[in-house]
């Protein structure tokens, strides 16, 4: 005859129970996570479409005021999304994470049901934690979507707006003050004049397009003796009777270069003292700049005015990560 031993439960048997209110907590936390990230993704992507959708330059067509509104919407949306996500984490940590409630049982017959109840609560708790974990991982997986949408504008294949300026073949050079076309006879040897492209005047008076061209299209026109020039191969015909044109945007950090020494033909950037030689293809002589000033090829139109042969053959301004030269 086989005897089995079953320990008698104590008079104060402890079991685990779960309050009914806590059963709904995992769904609440998961809902907060999903709403937070859905809000962030939908509104930020919508703002990005608005921000980039009106022009190829990456700015809204209505100008800086619309950009400020868009940035405000993005900031408020992300702030609300982070608030909801934080509320979900706090709710999870305060209600779901603590151990099971302990309730006293005095009945000797309650030992087996107590064990069953404890196992059921543990199983339910693990299942709900899995729900929260999966919803949190799903939310985190969606977070990069707005960043990818915005950062796509840095893809050199997505937009070449930063590579171009308003200078094109046949565009006249106009004085920066008064916007007058320039003839060769208007410049004396040793003189420097700041100029803008005539196509600049065709841009809207308000809005980012004109501001962008004002930032990247300025050119300094300098006249020296033709025999003082040391033109690189392929640039022999880029000057007109000793008149050369270079971008005024420093290749270090984009400051305007304008301090010209007519004796040495050197030009100095006032921000960080980068020095360039305009008689030697804009080469860097001193300072933090590592690239020469881009040169604008020049020609004369049928009316005797100076015009551009083409746009700059290299990007103007400071370097950025995808620049090849």
What does the model show?
- The N and C termini lie far apart (94 Å).
- The radius of gyration is 35 Å and the shape is elongated.
- About 6% of the residues have low confidence.
- It is α+β, with helices and mostly antiparallel strands and 325 residues long.
- 35% of the residues lie in helices and 15% in strands.
- The chain contains six helices and 13 strands.
- The protein has a five-stranded antiparallel sheet with strand order 3-4-5-6-11, with no helix packed on it. A four-stranded antiparallel sheet has the order 7-8-9-10, with no helix packed on it. A two-stranded antiparallel sheet has the order 1-2.
- Compressed to H and E, one letter per element, the order equals EHHHEHHEEHEEEEEEEEE
Largest sheet: 5 strands, antiparallel
Helix content: 25-40%
Distance between the termini: 94 Å
Rg of Cα set: 35 Å
- Derived from helix and strand composition plus strand pairing, the structural class reads alpha+beta
Q: Give the integer mean of the pLDDT values.
A: 74
User: How do the strands line up in the largest sheet?
Assistant: 3-4-5-6-11
Low-confidence stretches: 9-16, 54-64
Q: Approximately how much beta-strand content do the residues carry?
A: 15-25%
Number of strands: 13
Tally of helical runs? 6
Shape: elongated
Brief summary of the model shown:
The protein is of the alpha+beta class and 325 residues long.
Keywords for this structure?
alpha+beta, 6 helices, elongated, four-stranded antiparallel beta sheet, 325 residues
